[in-house]
Amino acid sequence: MVARDPAHRAGDAGLGKTIAFVTRVDEGISLAVLRGRPDAELTVPAPGTQVFAIQVLLTGTPRFESDRGTVCRPRAGSLVLSQYSDVLGAQVHLPARRDVHIVDLRLSADALRRLTSFPVTDRLMARFGSDAPSHPHAALVVSCQASHAMLQLAYSLSSTPLADPDALALWRRARAYELLAHVIDLLATPVFSPALTAIENERLLRAFAVLEERFNEAWPALRLARAVGLPEKKLQSGFRARVGTSVHAHLRALRLRHAAQRLASGASVTDVAFDVGYDNLSHFGKAFRAHFGVLPSDYRSQRGAPH
Which of the 8 DSSP states describes residue 146? Predict the structure, then answer.
C-alpha cells in the first residue's frame, strides 16, 4: 500500500468529510476521490515517500505548493502529475466554500517499476522541464489539460457501478491502469507536431483559455484560430498534441463537464442544455449520454439533486 495516503494522514475532520473514498487498487497503488465543499481551507499533505501521483481535477481551484512555494494553480479539466520525493514534498490546498472534485491515483516507486519500464520522471522533465523546480531533491509537480479519455476515466473512477466488492475492485484496477496508460502515452508523445514557436505556443494556450471562458459560444476551428492569431492547421495540430482531440471535441467535452457540474447542483436539464450552448435538447441528451454513460436526468438524480 502507498504509505501515508491522504485519508490516513488527515488530522482535520473537514478533510475526512471531503474524501469520498480511499481504496487500495493493487500492491503499492491507492485511489482517492475528493469531493465536497469544505467549510474551511483544507490541506492534503505530501505522502512523505517516493510516490508518483496522477490527479485529475474535475471541479475546483486547488493550489499545489512545494516546500519552496506555489507550484501551480490548475483549473477544472486539468491533469496534475506529481513525482513526490522522500526529502521534499508538496501539499494540495483546497479553498474554503468552493466545490472540489479530484480523482487522485498514487503509485509507489516499487509499484511503478513493477508495472512499466517507462522512464516516467525523465519524461516528465523532458516534457515539462521549463516548469520543473531547480532543486535536485524537490518534488516535481506539473499540470496540463487532461484529455477527453482521462476525464471520462476520472468520472468513471468516482463512481461505484458494481455491487460485488471483488468485481468492483477488479473494475477499478482496470480503469486505474488505463488512466496510467494514457498518462504514459501523453509523456511519450511530442508536445507539438509540427513544432510551434514560443509565440505560437502562447496563442495556443490562449485558445484553450478562450474555450474555457466562453464555452457556451459557437467556436468553429477557423473562428478560434483567427481569434488567437494562429493558422487553423497549427491550431488543430496543437490541440491534438496537447489533449488528443480536435477543437470541436474539446469544446464538447468542456460543455458537458460544465453541464455535469450544473446538474449535480440541481439545475434543470433544459436550463443546463441552453446555458452550456446546446439549442437542441435531444442533441444534448445524446452527447451527455455518450460522454458519461447516463442521460442528464439520471445523472442529476444519482447525485441527489432535488427534483
Answer: P
Q: Is the peptide bond before 38 cis (omega within 30 degrees of 0)?
A: no
Categorize the per-residue pLDDT at 141 as very low, low, confident or very high, splitting at 50, 70 and 90.
confident
**Nearest Cα to 284, choosing from 263, 265, 301?**
263
In the block, cell 503499492 appears at 28
Where does residue 283 rank: exposed (0-12), middle (13-18), buried (19+ CB within 10 A)?
exposed
- Interior/surface letters 36-46, b for 16+ CB within 10 angstroms, e for the rest: bebeeebbbbb
At 25, list the grid cell. 487498487
Neighbours of 275 (CB within 10 A): 15
- Across the range 233-258, mean pLDDT stands at 85
Q: What is d(CA 106, CA 28) in angstroms, rounded to the nearest whole number?
A: 8
Residue 197, classified by CB atoms within 10 Å of its CB into exposed (0-12), middle (13-18) or buried (19+), is exposed
Find the angle CA(216)-CA(220)-CA(225) to the nearest 5 degrees: 110
For the chain, the helix, strand and coil percentages under 3-state DSSP, each to the nearest 5:
45, 20, 35
Q: Taking the CA atoms of 180, 261, 288 and 232 in sequence, report the sign of the dihedral they define.
A: negative
Give the pLDDT score at 13. Answer: 54
Q: Range with the lowest mean pLDDT among 45-49, 77-81, 93-97, 274-278?
A: 45-49
What is the tens place of the pLDDT at every residue in 149-194? 999 999 999 988 899 999 999 999 999 999 999 999 988 875 554 5
Which one, of 181, 106, 171, lies nearest residue 150 by Cα? 181
Q: What is the structure's pLDDT at 239?
A: 85
Q: In 17-27, which positions are buried (b, 16+ CB within 10 angstroms) versus exposed (e)? A: ebbeebbebbe
Q: Is the pTM of this model over 0.70?
A: no
DSSP one-letter code for 74? P
